[in-house]
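Fig. S4 source data, part A: sequence.
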Amino acid sequence: MSFRHYVKEKLVYLMINALLWAFIFLTMHVVKAPIELIIMLLGLMIIACFAMLLEGFYKHKKYYDEVFKVMEQLEEIHYLSEIISLPEFEEGRVFYEILKRVSEDCVNQIIESRQAVTDYQEYIETWIHEIKRPIAGIDLICQNNQSDLTREIASELSKVDNHVEKALYYARSTQLKDDYYIQEHVLDTLIKNAVKKRSKALISAKTTLSIESLDYQVFCDKKWVDFMLGQIIDNSIKYAKGPLQLTFSGVEKKGKVILEIKDNGIGIPKQDLNRVFNKGFTGINGRLYTKSTGIGLYLCQKLCQKMYMGIRIDSKEGEYTIVQLIFPVNQEVIMKQM
């Protein structure tokens, strides 16, 4: 708030005072009052007017500066009216009352919106758990009745299950703090569990698998890392060119373990590399080679951020793709980032 703008708002008030001063001057001049008295009286009136102007400006500026300061510190700005004090001037009281009513309406709408999102999320999670039962049932039927047809059905069913799983993790990702637990795990065990779950798909892709020494202790949530590894493995299978070569290797650097997952697939075009983590981004490969949702890597990055991990991708089109997952190896690293 500047003094110049404040004076512009008080222009009518100043003009009325100026007319009043001119009238008093003319009246006193007509009655032949001493010029010294006229000047002294007018001087006192002008000083009083500007003193009131300055006092009003200071009061307004002090209050609104306080409002802006509080507003900048608030994470949820709709609670502003609950924190700022009631102003001493009438215009401010009107502003405060309007702000309070608007804030109350915003808070009510936010509560309703959050409840609607929670209800929808709970419905999605319930539906996903229910749909997993018939998926598991069909898979069991296929296992007990082995034939070319049932193997093909099982393969397609695995894709359905993967999409359902992705939907579940996406629904939960906004509430991750309530659904994860960071513990110490052996990286080698995490890798082998993820590979075992996807063994059929890897066999179908004629995969040559290489798991180098990964006997590192890392901090993460086992369930969420299994999902992330599954997405990376699925992408390698999806974008394979001929027999798949998949290599898992790791190295420890500066208090972190870097897991490197490399495949010999079609690679990622250079222009798409910096966008692969964007929500819904499918890129050239997603449109040309296979139908893609563009959600898998987006979720991986989001979950990494929540678990104080990192994720990077490097690729050369037509030759390879390398995904790096960066794990903290002690609790101190996690605490420093919290």
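Fig. S4 source data, part B ends here. The chain has a mean pLDDT of 81.
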